[in-house]
Write a structure and sequence with these properties.
The complex is a heterodimer of chains A (485) and B (480). Chain A is α/β, with parallel strands linked by helices. Chain A has a domain at 3-254: Amidase signature (AS) enzymes (Alpha-Beta Complex), CATH 3.90.1300.10. Chain A has 15 helices and eleven strands. Chain A has helices spanning 8-16, 22-40, 48-63, 105-112, 155-162, 179-185, 219-229, 273-288, 304-319, 338-349, 352-365, 371-394, 417-422, 428-433, 462-475, and strands spanning 43-46, 74-78, 116-121, 168-172, 188-191, 212-216, 259-263, 292-296, 397-401, 436-444, 450-457. In chain A, strands 1-3-2-4-6-5-10-11-9-7-8 form an eleven-stranded mixed beta sheet, with helices on both faces. In chain A, a hairpin with a 5-residue loop joins strand 10 (436-444) and strand 11. The longest helix of chain A has 24 residues, at 371-394. Chain B is of the alpha+beta class. Chain B has three domains: 3-289, no CATH class; 299-413, no CATH class; 421-479, Arc Repressor Mutant, subunit A, CATH 1.10.10. A nine-stranded mixed beta sheet of chain B has the order 2-6-7-10-1-11-12-13-14. Classes of the chains: A alpha/beta (485), B alpha+beta (480). Chain A binds chain B through residues 81-82, 88, 90, 95, 98, 100-102, 104, 199-204, 206-208, 234-238, 314-315, 317-318, 320-324, 326-328, 338, 342, 362, 365-367, 370, 374, and chain B through 39, 42-51, 78, 80, 82, 84, 87-90, 144, 271, 273-275, 278-281.
């Protein structure tokens, strides 16, 4: 097997048994990127030389018997994570040549455990989008069908793993941005509970919703990578001071005694027939594995998208104010007064979806509209969170589709933002509730596009959904299929 | 027409924490531009704020000292606007739920004692600073220094309870005294550690509804506050008298001209789009924390003043002077602890000789070479009759110059008071013998001459004769 076909776990084992070196593994992925990325466009920055140097150092440590969990493992980072010395663009022209002087905590933890940075991967600009078409560095192509989108905003993270350009990647999920691309690319993606992973050094889109998570080839890798990044960070006031359990230890092959809830609102009219069939088949598999299946209701689901587009955009309008051309990033060449410098720099630097969301959010917070929009949305958010807490009184895990359809074609929804926003209808409520959820492969459409299964857990019950996901994965073959590229 | 003046004040109190409110950078003043910055206070992408709990402690203490209620939960909010000295494009402040509310201060003056309400005290971060200048070979440029960005501030907002510039100044001085006493602010007005915005409006006497107000920004001395408010009262009265209207606006005080001028009108006012900062969790303060801070509170000037009068019989004036600044009051009390029987005479020495020496030398009382131990040591020598009050001045000067103990000085300089009646009698006899004319005058009924004899005896004894004994012996000789 080519080294680039390996999972994290296989790479770990091979490195520990000296079957190959970290340099060989890293070179395999670097070459794979070179061979395929003209087609996929997953990478904004490839750190080939630096990665090989880091791999050389990793081999020395391995030889000295100083192996940490990720020593010598090459990984890709969504270009939203600050990586000292390697440019961080957030897929925006406004940060085109921005090089951060510090590391995001999540990245620092991977580095501390020996990971090798392969490069920075593409995304929707400032994580705003569901198709990875909103990137100043061009759209990402789905490895299963390059005329299709990979999903977004962590489109590069999902596509690079699906294309075996990296064994795993980190992404961020604000309103489905890990789970939806994972679903569309046939890989595993997990959005941890808000506060589980530090947001420090992750460029903010919507601070009360953003959360860092892994994108991997299978569930065990997902548990391993989550283990590496989870935990309290004193630099992030919203991170929770609660030790992370041993996620890999939670992985067992059955679902005996697990109560799985099917939210009625996630099986609605308009759900793609192939998606419905795949998810229903997954329900049958879970039942066969010993799970008790219960129908539940999340009554405020229909308000989630509207609520999200008020809260997320309000926070974004403020978070993105710092891109003013004064201290870093793009500054207009136009000579003018202060206001002109601001408006030209921002007009030239931001793409249209980012501008749209800044304007929406500014409006939602404006005097006279705050109560009707932002405050109302916060109240709805409380109701949505309560929906989940109520459901978790009855069940351990919720199960449903990740997205209403498989990956759509590039350009198909680009002209209709509202249609695009609705593609996140099943993922957004989880961010609003602040709880954890993941996507894993559960089938294919008639056109051979992957379909993802969403498992939603109680707050901080990542181990529970990982367990359910692992049992399902062990019982199925979907994760073994690879995009033909 | 007769107008009633209505004034409310917003005071920015810069806290003396060592580090900034949301990051670990130093708050030291006057450093190389941008040397005290990090990703957080530079607002680099991805950086997040973490609250400095010392700033909260200081806020609680200030709230307690101004009779406020401390909120069990308060919330940080973002105040959004663009300016180059505001790196995030928003200031982290508190809006709907401030840390302290509903306090008051009493101010004394010609109006007697008056209670001024404090609406709220909230915590916020300071902005950076713009420096305008030129670089060689370039046009006029503006530079941004973010050393100050993120320095913790309290904004203390009063009720519109003041009715004259003097009341406003009295309130400001009182608040200033308290925050300096608490040690939460260095009180330096010139460096901007204590800044004031004044809201001034007029209404016809008897009218209940407030008039339209103007806000005067950033006045950086007590004297300027008085000038700015008085000018603003005059400007508004003239305007109203001539049938004009006051417009709601922000005005800047110009110290050069003593006038205020318009900065921006209400129409130009920002919509700050306040909303709770999602990067910070609500600030929870429980009763135990409040009590812990209460235990840290020093005794405040007002309580000290009352105690000085009640316990030690000082005059209201002396008590006021001695409590004006905490180091002075602490010094005084250290002395009284050492020599409780002599509070009044300690007060006289502290307010007299010591203050004079401190002022002359520009010396901080904490660095006074005459420590409470030395000063009271000297007073004990007076009490014991070892030296006279007059000689004590010499001893004091010597202590100031050398820091030596008073007993040593007295001994080395031979300043011990002569209380040997034989020796003094001898001098008295000599003085009277040499002053036959004056003796004649005294015996003829001119008692004023008595002072002359005392002076002569003291002079002859080089100041060392015990004055009481001199008096007694003189009287005896002259009248006997």
């Amino acid at each position: 097997m080519s080294l680039f076909e390996m999972t994290l776990q296989e790479l770990r084992t091979g490195l520990d048994r000296r079957e190959f070196t970290a340099v060989e593994a890293t070179r395999a992925f670097v070459e794979r990127i070179a061979a395929t990325d003209d087609t996929i466009n997953a990478f904004i920055t490839v750190c080939a030389d630096q990665a090989l140097a880091e791999a050389t150092a990793a081999d020395r440590r391995l030889a000295a018997g100083e192996s940490a969990p990720l020593t010598g493992i090459p990984l890709a980072m969504k270009d939203i994570f600050n990586t000292a010395g390697v440019r961080t663009t957030c897929a925006s022209k406004i940060l085109d040549n921005y090089v951060a002087p510090y590391d995001a905590t999540a990245f620092a933890r991977l580095k501390a455990q020996g990971a090798v940075l392969l490069g920075k991967v593409n995304m929707d600009e400032f994580a705003m989008g569901s198709s990875n078409e909103n990137s100043a560095f061009g759209a990402v192509h789905n490895p299963w069908d390059t005329t299709c989108v990979p999903g977004g905003s962590s489109g590069g993270s999902a596509a690079c793993v699906a294309a075996r350009q990296a064994p795993a990647a980190l992404g961020t999920d604000t309103g489905g941005s890990i789970r939806q691309p994972a679903s569309h690319c046939g890989v595993v993606g997990l959005k941890p509970t808000y506060g589980r992973v530090s947001r420090y050094g992750v460029i903010a889109y919507a601070s009360s919703l953003d959360q860092v998570g892994p994108v991997t080839r299978d569930v065990r890798d997902c548990a391993l990578l989550l283990q590496a990044i989870a935990g309290y960070d004193p630099l992030d006031s919203t991170s929770v001071d609660m030790p992370a359990p041993d996620y890999a230890a939670a992985l067992t092959a059955d679902l005996k005694g697990v109560r799985i809830g099917l939210p009625r609102e996630y099986f609605i009219e308009g759900l793609d027939a192939d998606v419905r069939q795949a998810v229903e088949q997954a329900v049958a598999t879970c039942r066969a594995l010993g799970a008790e299946i219960v129908e539940v209701s999340l009554p405020h689901t229909e308000y989630a998208v509207a609520c999200y587009y008020l809260i997320a955009t309000a926070e974004a309008s403020s978070n993105l104010a710092r891109y003013d051309g004064v201290r870093f990033g793009h500054r207009t060449a136009t000579q003018g007064n202060l206001i002109e410098t601001y408006s030209c720099s921002r007009d030239e630097g931001f793409g249209s979806e980012v501008k749209r969301r800044i304007m929406l959010g500014t409006y939602a917070l404006s005097s006279g509209y705050y109560d009707a929009y932002y405050l109302k949305a916060q109240k709805v958010r409380t109701l949505i969170r309560q929906d989940f807490l109520d459901a978790f009184e009855k069940v351990d895990v919720l199960l449903g589709p990740v997205a209403p359809t498989p990956a759509f074609r590039i350009g198909e929804k680009a002209a209709d933002p509202l249609q695009m926003y609705l593609s996140d209808i099943f993922t957004i409520p989880v961010n609003l509730a602040g709880t954890c959820a993941m996507s894993l492969p559960c089938g294919f459409s008639a056109t051979d596009l992957p379909i993802g299964l969403q498992l939603i857990g109680k707050p901080f019950a990542e181990a529970e959904i990982l367990r359910a996901a692992y049992a399902f994965e062990q019982a199925t073959e979907w994760h073994k299929r690879k995009a033909d590229i | 027409m007769n107008y009633e003046v209505v004034i409310g004040l917003e005071v920015h109190v810069q806290l003396t924490t060592k580090t900034k409110i949301f990051c670990g950078c130093s708050t030291a003043f006057g450093q190389t531009p941008n040397s005290q910055t990090c990703p957080v206070c530079l607002a680099l992408p991805g950086a997040l704020p973490v609250l400095n709990y010392q700033a909260v402690e200081y806020a609680i203490r200030t709230g307690l000292a101004t009779n406020c209620t401390i909120a069990p939960q308060s919330v940080f909010a973002r105040k959004n606007y663009f300016y180059p000295d505001l790196p995030k494009g928003y200031q982290i402040s508190q809006y709907e739920l401030p840390v302290c509310q509903h306090g008051w201060l009493d101010i004394e003056g010609e109006w007697g004692s008056k209670r001024i309400g404090i609406t709220r005290i909230h915590m916020e971060e300071d902005a950076g600073k713009l420096v305008h200048g030129e670089l060689p070979g370039t046009a006029q440029s503006s530079f941004v220094d973010l050393n100050r960005a993120g320095t913790p501030l309290l904004e203390v907002v009063s009720e519109p309870d003041m009715r004259s510039a003097d009341e406003a100044v009295a309130y400001l001085k009182k608040l200033h005294q308290i925050v300096v006493y608490l040690g939460v602010c260095d009180g330096n007005l010139e460096e901007g550690s204590f800044r004031c915005d004044a809201n001034v409006s007029l209404r016809p006497v008897g009218q209940e509804q407030f008039g339209t107000r103007a806000e005067i920004k950033n006045v950086n001395s007590f004297r300027f506050v008085k000038l700015a408010i008085e000018h603003e009262i005059e400007r508004q009265a003239d305007l109203l008298d001539s049938g004009g209207k006051v417009v709601q606006e922000t005005r800047l005080f110009d110290a050069q001209t003593g006038m205020t001028r318009s900065m921006r009108s209400k129409e130009e006012a920002h919509d700050y789009r306040y909303f709770p900062d999602p990067d910070l969790v609500p600030l929870e303060i429980d009763a135990a924390w409040i009590e812990a801070e209460r235990a840290q509170l020093p005794e405040l000037p007002e309580a000290r003043r009352q105690r000085y009068q009640a316990d030690w019989g000082l005059s209201a004036y002396d008590a006021e002077v001695l409590t004006a600044e905490r180091p002075l009051a602490d010094y005084f009390e250290a002395c009284v602890t050492l020599l409780p029987s002599q509070a009044k005479s300690i007060a006289n020495w502290v307010m007299g000789e010591l203050t004079r020496k401190l002022n002359e030398g520009g010396v901080n009382i904490a660095e006074s070479p005459v420590t409470p131990l030395l000063l009271t040591g000297m007073l004990k020598l007076i009490e014991a009759g070892t030296i006279s009050g007059k000689i004590a001045k010499t001893v004091f000067d010597e202590m100031w110059a050398t820091g030596h103990e008073p007993a040593r000085i007295v001994e080395e300089k031979g300043l011990v008071q002569v209380s040997d009646s034989g020796a003094i009698e001898q001098i008295v006899a000599e003085v009277l013998a040499a002053s036959a004319a004056q003796v004649e005058q005294y015996r003829g009924g001119n008692e004023k001459v008595f002072g002359f004899f005392v002076g002569q005896v003291m002079k002859a004894s080089k100041g060392k004769a015990n004055p009481a004994l001199v008096n007694e012996l003189l009287k005896k000789k002259l009248e006997g």
